[in-house]
Write a structure and sequence with these properties.
hydrolase activity; about 260 residues; binds 2-acetamido-2-deoxy-beta-D-glucopyranose; Rossmann fold; alpha/beta; 8 strands; single chain
């Protein structure tokens, strides 16, 4: 028995995989974020690190995750807590401040929100450089070799943009991405996964089917998973007393971790 256990541990360390398998208990829904804010290349970045002793953290030492928020930014505690959950899964996780304090007051699918004005102020011409500087910090200063991007709503599109040629990302995950264009899917040069909500005005069933078809055409590994009983935003903000919503948020997180564990 003991010999078997020791062998199992040795194999686990050697393979750098399936060590401390991650389950839903790793997702922290409330409480206090444990990461800190730093400034690099002029960008404010929320940084959450794996525990020093974590086997998964050691295995993933040359990898990092760039967490791209929804329109509520790193101000939203659930965004920082979810970044912490990725760190708990063994990945250095950094979430750049995409909005420099000029946050949206409601989500972009809520009627009455001046989506046009918000998006004009935060187009790719403004957002791409923030993410590029974050990736440059990881690669140049920290020597990170592999970068996964996880994005939510607004940020989901950018997870795709940064795995196109020369952008510096290696694998992408997006939950309920908004404004994702076909050209951005066609351009990917790495594996991409999507978690989709059942109810999402920004990604209704017809658009979801198109995205699926575009992913298939892109010629990269892909996954698109649909979570029943969920709404736009479910990857980050849910009613955790609703079993389907809780399952959806945790499922999307575990989908992302498994994606990076296998393809980053
Ligand atoms: C990090 O920045 C966010 C956004 O401004 C803020 O809400 C949070 O309190 C900061 N965290 C720390 C530890 O200072
Ligand atoms: C953020 O906004 C402040 C003014 O509020 C400005 O001085 C600073 O340059 C801005 N930072 C970025 C990265 O755009
Ligand atoms: C970004 O593009 C928008 C729309 O074309 C423009 O109004 C804005 O001034 C641009 N911002 C920067 C920083 O170039
Ligand atoms: C959260 O979900 C529970 C269980 O479905 C429900 O009873 C409750 O009303 C919901 N809360 C809100 C604020 O929607």
């Amino acid at each position: 028995m003991r010999a078997f256990t020791l062998l199992a541990i040795a194999t686990c360390v050697a393979a750098h995989s399936d060590c401390n398998a991650v389950d839903a208990s790793i997702v922290q829904h409330d409480g206090f974020p444990r990461g800190i804010n730093e400034t690099h290349n002029g960008i404010k970045i929320y940084v959450s690190k794996p525990e020093d002793a974590s086997i998964r953290g050691k295995a993933n030492a040359a990898k990092a995750i760039v967490y791209l928020t929804d329109v509520f930014g790193i101000e939203l505690v659930q965004n920082r807590l979810l970044a912490d959950s990725f760190a708990r899964a063994g990945y250095l996780t950094v979430a750049p401040d995409l909005f420099n304090g000029s946050l949206a007051t409601t989500d972009i699918n809520v009627p009455g929100f001046d989506t046009a004005a918000f998006l004009a102020a935060h187009g790719p011409n403004v957002t791409d450089p923030i993410i590029a500087k974050t990736i440059d910090y990881l690669r140049t200063t920290l020597g990170i070799k592999k970068i996964g991007l996880t994005g939510y709503c607004f940020g989901g599109r950018y997870a795709f943009r940064f795995i196109s040629a020369g952008k510096g990302g290696d694998a992408a995950f997006a939950a309920h991405p908004s404004l994702l264009e076909n050209g951005e899917i066609e351009a990917i040069k790495g594996p991409a996964a999507v978690a989709a909500a059942e109810t999402d005005g920004l990604m209704p069933p017809a658009r979801r089917a198109e995205i699926e078809a575009e992913l298939a055409k892109a010629g990269q590994a892909y996954q698109l998973s649909l979570y029943s009983g969920t709404q736009h935003g479910f990857g980050v903000r849910v009613n955790v007393t609703d079993p389907l919503q809780k399952f959806g948020k945790e499922g999307a997180f575990l989908q992302a971790v498994r994606w990076f564990d296998n393809f980053l």
